[in-house]
Design goal:
18 helices; mainly alpha; 418 residues; Amino acid/polyamine transporter I
Length: 418
């Protein structure tokens, strides 16, 4: 090997190490893709319809890759988050209305995630749901306090640790289940059985591409890659976009695999078992029909999911307020405002799993209001300059936005009819 080849190898190795250090924001945003809402829809789909909706989950995961990449790209190119860009471009009345609907979606997100964590604590320790929800709120507040421009690495480390727990908790049962892999392969063929399967398909998509993940990812990418007051030259932007493609692909590859594992587990082991339409029933069925340890590990994964996702949701809420209202509000105040609805729902005795599913309907209304502006902004040369989306990415963005909006309209209509 010549001296030039040795030098080239060292340069390539150093470049790869630098690229690795740029990864991270997408893994935090990916928590939104393995939250309690995803757990509920994936387990219900697998238990009720077997492998029928595998294709929906795969397409939803692919759509999420496009949405999250565009979110991070906007921040890297402009140095501003999606809420900040919209806050600069919208007139006052429209900006306030946009902020109001975004706050509603954050509250709905908190409902799903606090309820999921409360259910996990009830499964593990028998805690009443209201007490469990309060514990989740307090612990997630502590996690959220780690997040700042100066301490993002600590926040990222904690969230990544929880993502590892979630991955183990939601995937472990698959290793001891007898999956019909030929049937799973057949589930990649697009089709439905009945109206309920269409509803579940829309629910899977609604639980997968969530508005707060789009808002949060742009802010996370800005905090990680765009120091305030510093201009990023084009070569660095290209480098960051390359790292972001790897970051998004890897993070959502993990999240997509976890979701698929849950659906396959439910299809293989929970079909026809009564009570699996609730998270408590699903955990009990895993303990009774697979192994006690599997139900326990699942509950631990559900708890980590609730804690991590509500912390990320709280971060998204603070960024939305800062970007659209241009004010900074205490994290404690924000948490109190957005978590109160979840605690009220638990306190009045509503069916927690039903409330979790209905929260996904509310979120479905917020998806177009986050995704459509993102697709339009990243296709606007006045905003993105030389990094404006090319034709393939424009088409992909338009297809994803149209499909998700359409499916969520179906979700809303079918849920209201039911």
């Amino acid at each position: 090997m010549t001296a030039g080849q040795v030098a080239e190898r060292h340069v390539r190795a150093r470049s790869e190490r630098q690229l690795f250090r740029l990864l991270g924001p997408a893994f935090i945003a990916a928590i939104a893709y393995v939250d309690p809402g995803n757990v509920a829809t994936n387990l219900t789909a697998g238990a009720k319809y077997g492998y029928l909706l595998v294709w929906v989950l795969l397409l939803a995961s692919a759509a999420a890759v496009v949405a999250q990449y565009l979110s991070a790209k906007l921040a890297i190119v402009t140095g501003r988050s999606l809420p900040e860009v919209l806050g600069e471009r919208l007139p006052t009345k429209r900006r306030l209305l946009y902020w109001a609907q975004a706050e509603v979606t954050i509250a709905a997100t908190e409902v799903a995630e606090v309820i999921g964590g409360a259910i996990a604590l009830q499964i593990l320790f028998g805690l009443p749901l209201v007490i469990g929800g309060s514990v989740v709120a307090l612990v997630s507040f502590g996690i959220l306090m780690l997040q700042s421009r100066h301490r993002q690495n600590s926040f990222q480390f904690v969230i990544l640790g929880m993502l590892a727990i979630i991955t183990i908790g939601f995937s472990s049962g698959l290793a001891v289940s007898h999956v019909d892999w030929l049937g799973a392969l057949g589930g990649m063929v697009p089709r439905f059985d009945d109206t309920e399967s269409v509803l579940l398909a829309a629910g899977i998509v609604g639980a997968t591409v969530m508005p707060h993940a789009i808002y949060a990812h742009s802010s996370l990418a800005r905090d990680r890659h765009c120091p305030p007051g510093r201009y990023a030259p084009s070569w660095r932007v290209k480098r960051l976009l390359q790292a972001t493609r790897w970051d998004v692909g890897a993070a959502l590859g993990v999240a997509g695999s976890v979701n698929l594992a849950m659906l396959l587990l439910a299809a293989a082991a929970l079909g026809g078992i009564p009570g699996t339409d609730t998270l408590q029933g699903a955990a009990r069925a895993m303990s009774d029909h697979i192994a006690p340890m599997i139900g326990l590990v699942f509950a631990i994964g559900l708890l980590a999911s609730g804690l991590a996702s509500t912390a990320v949701g709280g971060y998204a809420g603070s960024e939305i307020m800062a970007g659209l209202l241009r004010v900074q509000v205490s994290v404690l105040v924000r948490r109190a405002v957005t978590i109160v609805p979840a605690l009220v729902i638990l306190g009045v005795g509503l069916d927690p799993t039903r409330a979790l599913v209905l929260s996904q309907v509310v979120l479905s209304l917020g998806i177009p209001l986050a995704l459509v502006p993102l697709v339009r902004l990243t296709a606007d040369r006045a905003v993105m300059g030389q990094f404006v989306n090319g034709v393939p990415l424009r088409v992909a963005g338009a297809v994803v936005a149209t499909a998700i909006v359409g499916l969520n309209v179906v979700l809303l209509i079918l849920t209201l009819k039911g």
